[in-house]
Amino acid sequence: MTDHDHDHDHDHDRELAPTVDEITDFEVLEIALRELCIEKGLFTAEEHRRFTEFAEQINSTPAAHLVARAWLDPEFKKLALTDALAASKAVGVDWLEPTGFGTPSDFTALKILEDTPTLHHVIVCALCSCYPRPIMGNSPEWYRTPNYRRRMVRWPRQVLAEFGLYLPSDIAIRVEDSNQKHRFMVLPLRPKGTEGWDEDELAQIVTRDCLIGVALPKPGVTTNVITDTRAAVHPATE
To answer: Belongs to which family (predicted)?
Structure first.
């Protein structure tokens, strides 16, 4: 074996794995469909970029303000429960044109589910991942998993307990299943200890999980809370 051959084999042994995993069939389909739409003039590459950036920056803040305002204003609460789209618009979300540049939502039927002292709501999409994105942003990863979708419908009390939400047996749980055209969000009960708070203060404790129904709003627990963590059984050593 020559030195050249030896060096070649040595370099081959040192080859690194690709830094990007092979793309999935769904990703290939998305690329092909996007390029075809641009080619046919349905939208431009610039419009696609703007919509993608819009979709990535939306979050649950408008929904949190909707809940906080409903807690403070009985008339607004009535509006929220009877005309959720109008209530959404009052907190800055127009479901007919959420992007602000001529792109309507693909679904325009939102219902707000009011919790009571004896009834707790939780939302799920048993089929896929339907979610009120214009007002709550993109759904969390666990919401889209088959594990959550299947088990929440069958054993809601057990699954809620896994989220740390333990409800008394005298509180009924109603699981609302989103579908192709209907979206839901939860209006939780206002917690004790928030008397005298204004809308901004109240909105801070209405987290995304409260709006889904897997958590309850609590004073001191905000969207930015850092939860306690358990130490690793076998921590890494330096």
So the answer is: Belongs to the nitrile hydratase subunit alpha family.
Let me know if 125 is a catalytic residue: yes
**pLDDT number for residue 235:** 44
Tell me which residue of 187, 184, 188, 238 sits closest to 216, measured CA to CA.
188
C-alpha distances out from residue 144 to 20, 23, 116, 140, Å: 23, 20, 27, 7
CATH number assigned to the domain covering 59-212: 3.90.330.10
Question: What pLDDT digit, counting tens, does each position of 146-186 carry?
Answer: 999 999 999 999 999 999 999 999 999 999 998 877 899 99
**129 tagged catalytic:** yes
88 catalytic, yes or no?
A: no
| Distance from C-alpha of 28 to C-alpha of 17, rounded to nearest angstrom | 21
pLDDT band at 106 (very low <50, low <70, confident <90, very high): low
pTM recorded for the entire structure: 0.76
Closest CA to 131 of 105, 104, 153: 105
Sole residue written with tokens 């009011």? 114
- Locate the domains of the chain by residue range: 25-55, 59-212
Confidence of residue 187 (pLDDT cuts 50, 70, 90): very high
